[in-house]
Backbone:
């Protein structure tokens, strides 16, 4: 076929980022190839000597097991993984129909990556270390400001303004005149300019407001706000973007943010007198999440710090329960499973927990532990850790049993791995002690891991169960989005992104008798123990990092806009660059799922 290659490059990402002279040089190095349907471009394990760009037709990418992991169409590039790593193909690429490609020689590709950061960023699937800035002063205003500030017209009376400030519990009003920011009124103004001067309550705001207040854009740093407030002796800063009011920041906001850390929240929880106080403290987690994400903390740091707060709330509720009910009749251990057990809580979490009782417990003792479980679960629900929809809580008598019963549970699940047993085992293998006698769990965990890892039928069924959650991969580098309902046209970053990796991590832990509960820690340990290959493990960790970071960034953005955080993100919210890399992360997960399935699929 005849095609103007220079024009093609100007219309194809990421080559469109190259200067014209480099596009011309690249066009001169391209070699056009025509393939018939079924003809392989390259096969797994073969030397990789070029990067390919599809001009027309369709290419199927399959993994080492022959499973289809990607369908590529015109303007898609492929083959970079082999070139960026050891020079050998990690997958097989086959023309699904008559297809025309252009090949970029390996040397040319490596020169592009070396000379052009934009090309390197696009093709480098590794996760470069980011600077983790923990200092509040380096955050941008957009990450910490209060959005949708309360506004009034200049003609509004002082009485009406004061009533609005009281009812909305704010210390400042922004005065708007014909769509233009004209002033602000603060509680300090009410004291110094109204009460001290004995003005009438009918006085319009335009007569007493601070006119033409200093403003800053949302891209300014918090340090800029503090400097301006200190020099001007002001306490409120309107935030304006392109002439439009988008938020406000006060000294109170900054003080609250400085006080919002896991250590400060936990210290407050530790002395909270009741569940209502704990709920008020936990309600500050969304602001804390925004602060952590805005400071570019890694997802495993964010979720660990947030989970620490949930752990502290649970332990304090246990203490309050004992103060109310009296000392327990026998030793017990409260454990968390699910995201709390894995130390992976985000801005959206329910509660999953259970109780292990000392074997000396009697039926009569259960009344005490039933009351304790209800006290703690009710308190967690009040704090926003909602009741588990599947009733996987210590309030359910089934999950409030002596140690000997728990041993029977795990033994039964392992020896008779029916669908319910697989589901229950999947949840319970993420158990982590929170409060009580930890020795009740140590022996149980070791016994269960040893027993399950040696039962190949159980492991095979667990692998089969773990593959039920699949990445949202569609055709032509698109995403398979939710088709209907409230979340139509979005991808579920939890069930189709994070959960597939969580499931894989759990399988690796079973196979290697790994004691870690955290998913990322399990992946790292699995690589170190040789449960998975070094290359596959690094790819999976990178993929998990990208998806988990994207999920937290999505939730932080929702919180900043006053929305309730969830796990459903529209692909249109991402740039082409971000969509491409996210899809590659999903491809890695599907490849690792295929590898896990081929090693130990379901046995009939």
Residues:
């Amino acid at each position: 076929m005849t095609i103007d290659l220079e024009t093609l490059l100007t219309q194809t990402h990421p080559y469109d980022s190259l200067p014209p002279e480099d596009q011309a040089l690249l066009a001169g190095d391209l070699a056009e190839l025509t393939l018939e349907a079924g003809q392989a471009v390259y096969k797994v394990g073969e030397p990789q000597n070029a990067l390919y760009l599809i001009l027309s037709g369709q290419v199927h990418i399959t993994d080492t097991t022959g499973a289809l992991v990607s369908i590529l169409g015109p303007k898609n590039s492929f083959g970079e993984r082999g070139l960026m790593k050891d020079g050998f193909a990690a997958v097989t690429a086959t023309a699904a129909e008559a297809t025309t490609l252009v090949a970029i020689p390996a040397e040319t590709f490596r020169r592009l990556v070396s000379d052009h950061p934009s090309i390197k960023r696009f093709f480098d699937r590794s996760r470069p270390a980011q600077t983790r800035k923990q200092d509040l002063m380096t955050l941008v205003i957009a990450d910490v400001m209060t959005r949708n500030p309360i506004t009034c017209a200049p003609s509004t009376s002082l009485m009406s303004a004061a009533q609005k400030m009281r009812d909305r519990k704010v210390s400042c009003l922004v005065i708007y005149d014909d769509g233009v920011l004209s002033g602000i009124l603060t509680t300090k103004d009410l004291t110094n300019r109204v009460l001290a001067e004995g003005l009438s309550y009918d006085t319009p705001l335009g007569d007493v407001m601070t006119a033409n207040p200093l403003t800053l854009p949302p891209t300014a740093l918090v340090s800029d706000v503090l400097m301006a407030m200190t020099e001007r002796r002001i306490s409120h800063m309107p935030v304006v973007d392109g002439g439009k009011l988008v938020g406000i920041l006060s000294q109170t906001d900054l003080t609250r943010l400085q006080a919002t850390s896991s250590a400060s929240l936990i210290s407050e929880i530790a002395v909270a007198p009741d569940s209502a106080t704990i709920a008020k403290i936990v309600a500050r987690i969304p602001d804390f999440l925004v602060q952590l994400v805005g400071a570019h903390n890694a997802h495993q740091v964010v979720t660990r710090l947030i989970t620490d707060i949930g752990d502290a709330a649970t332990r304090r509720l246990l203490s309050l329960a004992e103060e109310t009910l009296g000392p327990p009749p026998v030793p017990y251990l409260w454990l968390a499973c699910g995201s709390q057990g894995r130390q992976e809580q985000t801005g959206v979490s329910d509660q999953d927990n259970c109780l292990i009782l000392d074997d000396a417990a009697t039926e009569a003792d259960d009344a005490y532990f039933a009351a304790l479980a209800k006290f703690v679960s009710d308190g967690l629900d009040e704090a926003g850790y909602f009741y588990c929809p599947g009733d996987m809580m210590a309030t359910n008598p089934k999950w409030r049993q002596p140690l000997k019963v728990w041993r029977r549970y795990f033994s039964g699940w392992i020896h008779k791995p029916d669908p319910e047993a697989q589901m229950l085992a999947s949840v319970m293998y993420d158990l982590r002690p929170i409060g009580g006698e930890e020795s009740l769990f140590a022996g149980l965990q070791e016994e269960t891991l040893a027993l399950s890892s040696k039962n190949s039928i159980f492991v095979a069924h667990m692998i089969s169960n773990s593959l039920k959650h699949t990445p949202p991969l569609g055709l032509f580098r698109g995403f398979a989005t939710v088709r209907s309902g409230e979340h139509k046209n979005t991808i579920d970053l939890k069930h189709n992104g994070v959960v597939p990796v969580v499931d894989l991590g759990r399988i690796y832990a079973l196979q290697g008798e790994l004691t870690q509960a955290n998913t990322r820690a399990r992946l790292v340990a699995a690589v170190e123990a040789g449960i998975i290959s070094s290359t596959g493990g690094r790819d999976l960790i990178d993929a998990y990092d990208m998806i988990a970071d994207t999920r937290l960034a999505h939730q932080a953005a929702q919180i900043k806009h006053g929305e309730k955080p969830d796990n459903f993100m529209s692909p249109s919210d991402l740039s082409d660059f971000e969509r491409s890399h996210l899809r590659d992360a999903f491809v890695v997960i599907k490849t690792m799922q295929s590898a896990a399935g081929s090693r130990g699929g379901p046995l009939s």
